[in-house]
Specification:
alpha/beta; Rossmann fold; GMP Synthetase, Chain A, domain 3; 2 domains; ten-stranded mixed sheet; 12 helices; 24 strands; 31% helix
Length: 445
């Protein structure tokens, strides 16, 4: 009942204050919910069985989503934020003691994993976010990301229900809807807190929405923020977008609180409040703190041993010099080219510096030459007017020959998913499948 007890304290303190403002697409008066309104609607909801799995999806709409969360907290159900409820089994098997929440990873680097959390762990993550980012209850969160994703839940739902930070909910995250929210905030002489993913920051910047935006704190997470985009936004609008690095397994890890744009694309900031960071012998980042999850529910032994007892060993290779966190690649994603270990992230950072490159992914595939081991593939979403040779020349100015891609895969459909991620493993499998199909057609010709 710890989370529900904290909600009761929030509701008693905030009562008639605005909790949720749902903006309308037609520009008519918004639908406002106070903290007392949420409690009244909650009181009218039937009780669910303790220990039952209670799914919640973003498609329910924010007020309904919040009421489902509060129902789970009130009745001792296990909350399961999901993309959809298709195929969900609501009654769960054995869970670690005091489990109240199950997250599901994005699966961007492999099979999605389910993770068990206690209420104390969720509450610790919310405290760290508010303390580290110095968020102001007078600067409502604008909901531009899914509240069911780990990032959205920690940055939107928990600060509202546990600490009273209100939400403004536009009808969509598209530039026109965000512009309308900004206009209303100016009329009410308010500034907003804006957590988003890099793809949204890019679309808002290109649409000119960020000029003189009434934003108190701008946050980017879910995927690496391109350095060039961060600098462009700052130079043209004066708005500093702060990078936030976290993981489903442990919540917030590091935050860049500098008032100026970064000069190093690998930099993700300093450790969050209450978080301790160190490196294992292989150079992988280990996260320790009160927000780290209990463990995985159905992972194999090699994965399961990375999480538990207040510690999470990531697969991110990092440097911790001077108290700053720099990510230099993923242990599981390094490409072996003739014995040289190459970080895809380093090539991706260089690609994103080239004009008209919107998104990119780099991965390794088996080489037909055993001595080479793997070959580098660059999957690129770029303006179709840009020839591959121009990309090759541009990349050669930034990287040595041995880091140059052997294959260039032009994909205008390479765009971040709903979580703001580009799932490397999925695109790699698609590339391999298309290559195999092409070889099969050639063999039959």
């Amino acid at each position: 009942m710890q989370l529900f007890d904290q909600w009761q304290r929030t509701r008693q303190a905030r009562g008639t204050a605005l909790a949720v403002r749902c903006l309308r697409a037609d520009g008519s008066l918004p639908e406002d919910w106070t903290f007392d309104d949420l409690q009244r609607h909650l009181d009218a909801r039937p009780v669910v069985a303790a220990g039952e799995g209670l799914p919640v999806t973003a498609g329910q709409g924010v007020p309904e989503l919040l009421l489902t969360v509060l129902t789970a907290w009130r009745d001792g159900a296990v909350l399961m934020p999901l993309e959809s409820t298709d195929g969900v089994i609501e009654r769960l098997g054995h869970l670690p003691p005091d489990t109240v929440h199950i997250k599901t990873t994005s699966g961007s680097t492999g099979r999605p994993q389910r993770i068990a959390f206690t209420g104390a762990q969720l509450a610790a993550d919310a405290r760290a976010i508010l303390a580290t980012m110095a968020l102001d209850l007078g600067a409502p969160n604008l909901v531009a990301i899914s509240a069911t994703h780990s990032y959205g839940f920690s940055n939107l739902v928990l600060p509202l229900l546990l600490h009273g930070m209100p939400l403004w909910v536009p009808p969509s995250p598209l530039p026109a809807a965000v512009r309308a929210a900004f206009d209303l905030a100016r009329q009410e002489q308010l500034r907003l807190t804006l957590p988003a993913v890099p793809a949204l920051w890019r679309s808002w910047h290109q649409a000119g929405v960020l000029a003189e935006a009434p934003v108190a704190t701008a946050i980017s997470a879910g995927a690496p923020m391109p350095l060039e985009l961060e600098c462009q936004i700052f130079e043209q609008t004066g708005l500093k977008v702060h990078n936030f690095y976290g993981s489903s397994e442990c919540g917030g890890i590091a935050y860049d609180d500098s008032p100026q744009p970064r000069t190093d694309a690998h930099l993700v900031g300093r450790a969050m409040a209450g978080v301790t960071l160190d490196l294992d012998p292989d150079g992988c980042l280990r996260v320790s703190g009160a927000a780290v999850a209990q463990g995985y529910l159905d992972a194999g032994p090699a994965v399961a041993q990375r999480l538990g007892a207040g510690s999470f060993l990531t697969t991110d290779l990092a440097d911790l010099s001077g108290g700053e966190v720099r990510l230099i690649g993923r242990q599981t994603e390094c490409i072996n080219v003739a014995g040289r270990k190459i970080s895809p992230a380093e090539i991706e950072h260089a690609l994103l510096r080239l004009p008209l490159v919107q998104h990119c992914l780099v991965f390794g595939v088996p080489s037909h030459d055993p001595a080479r081991v793997e070959e580098i593939v660059a999957c690129v979403n770029v303006d179709p007017r840009v020839p591959v040779e121009e990309l090759r020349r541009g990349l050669a100015a930034h990287l040595p020959t041995w880091q140059q891609p052997r294959h260039w895969w032009m994909r205008p459909d390479l765009v971040p998913d709903a979580r703001g991620k580009l799932p490397r493993s999925r695109w790699r499998l698609q590339f391999l499948a298309e290559e195999a199909e092409a070889r099969g057609l050639m063999g039959r010709a």
